[in-house]
Amino acid sequence: MGLTQQEALDLFRSDDLIGIGMAAMEVRRKKTDPRVATYQIDRNINYTNFCTEYCSFCAFYRPLGSKEGYLLSFETIYKKIDEMLELGGTGILLQGGLHPDLRIEYYENLLRSLKQRFPQVHLHCFSAPEIGCIAEVSGLSVRETIARLMAAGLDSIPGGGAEILDDEIRARISRLKCTSDEWEDMHRVAHSLGMRTTATMMFGCGEEYRHRVNHLERLRRIQEDTGGFTAFIPWMFAPENTPLGKKVPEATAVDYLKTLAISRLYLDNIDHIQSSWLTPGIKVAQPHERRRVAPHHFRRRIHPRSARYAVSFLFLEVNHSGIKFGLYGYSFCQTRAALAMPASSDAKGSA
Ligand code: SF4
């Protein structure tokens, strides 16, 4: 039995980080083999940064017509996947802005060409807001859209675009983007079609603890009904170069660790909690390295610099064993570090 909403609120207000972490560790011990944490090497690819939504927390998007905007060619995407494969990667997280000119045929062609060229690569693509945009632009229902994307080769759907699933907050930070109910509906439809998805939460964007709890409660209810989430990934809002960043205090590392642990306790019906160092930073990731355990087949193939970050959170599991999902951002950073790429070469951004 997971936490009640009141218990979760009490934990968020508590200073007992170690106690919360120990309780989370107990849950983890019961759910999975505590000696094993798994991860996957994958790469984030942002196929376009053009977007119509103007989210105030986003430093990634460019308005239509901007000289800094781009739409990657298929060839460029192939090249990025080739680089990922050279490092032993097995999947991509493909996301972008909401582009009003790209109809479903574009996405079907892209997925088909990727599956044909890279049949071994897991395609974890297009968050709920992107799928909503594709459906709208193409005059299709969400169900038809997801079914067609699946038929074209989509393997799973990332949980991006959730931010805080409470419309009081969404109205402030992503007014034009899908509502909490629409995000939920898209994941429910995907699950009903047999498509697995992940769930995320971006916190530290001016919300109160009660909003985070509402978010977790919504995810737990969906999972109770569908069982379709494979993992939950919380991360902190990165304030640099954003309008919102000038208005809200930055979340702390303690807040990150506490939120990660409370997530494990609350979402007792979601198998896996993923950790990340993309926004918390390497200092917060350091304790993760305490329990560095990797599956043998990955350990052999992983690049030495990437292996340094093949880590598990202090007291929480990281990922699925034997499943093809990458760690959001986390694995992207591994790849980028291994490629010695500049930070701007593959900027994190998504709907
Ligand atoms: S977060 Fe996504 S939807 Fe919002 S502006 Fe950025 S790219 Fe667009």
List keywords for this structure.
351 residues, mainly alpha, TIM Barrel, three-stranded parallel β-sheet, 42% helix, 9% strand, globular, disordered C terminus, binds iron/sulfur cluster
Note down, in words, how this protein is organized:
Helix 2 runs parallel beside helix 10. The chain is mainly alpha-helical and 351 residues long. The protein has 14 helices and six strands. The radius of gyration is 19 Å and the shape is globular. It has helices spanning 5-13, 17-31, 74-86, 104-117, 128-138, 142-152, 167-173, 180-192, 209-226, 253-266, 282-285, 296-301, 304-307, 330-339, and strands at 42-46, 91-95, 122-125, 197-203, 229-236, 272-273. The chain has one domain (5-34, 43-273): TIM Barrel, CATH 3.20.20.70. A three-stranded parallel beta sheet has the order 1-2-3. Strands 4-5-6 form a three-stranded parallel beta sheet. The model is unreliable at 289-350 (pLDDT under 50). Helix 4 links the parallel strand 2 and strand 3. Helix content is 42%, strand content 9%. Bound molecules: iron/sulfur cluster (SF4). Iron/sulfur cluster binds at residues 51, 53-55, 58, 60-61, 97-98, 129, 174, 177, 349-351.
Brief overview, please?
The chain is mainly alpha-helical.
Total strand segments = 6
Give the N-terminus to C-terminus distance in angstroms.
33 Å
CATH topology category name? TIM Barrel
For this structure, the quaternary state is single chain
What fraction of the residues are assigned to beta strands by DSSP? Answer: 5-15%
Shape label: globular
Layout: helices, strands, pairs:
Blueprint: H1 5-13, H2 17-31, E1 42-46, H3 74-86, E2 91-95, H4 104-117, E3 122-125, H5 128-138, H6 142-152, H7 167-173, H8 180-192, E4 197-203, H9 209-226, E5 229-236, H10 253-266, E6 272-273, H11 282-285, H12 296-301, H13 304-307, H14 330-339
Parallel strand pairs: 1-2, 2-3, 4-5, 5-6
Helix pairs in contact: 1-9, 2-10, 4-6, 5-6, 5-8, 8-9
The structure holds iron/sulfur cluster.
The site of iron/sulfur cluster has 15 residues, from loops.
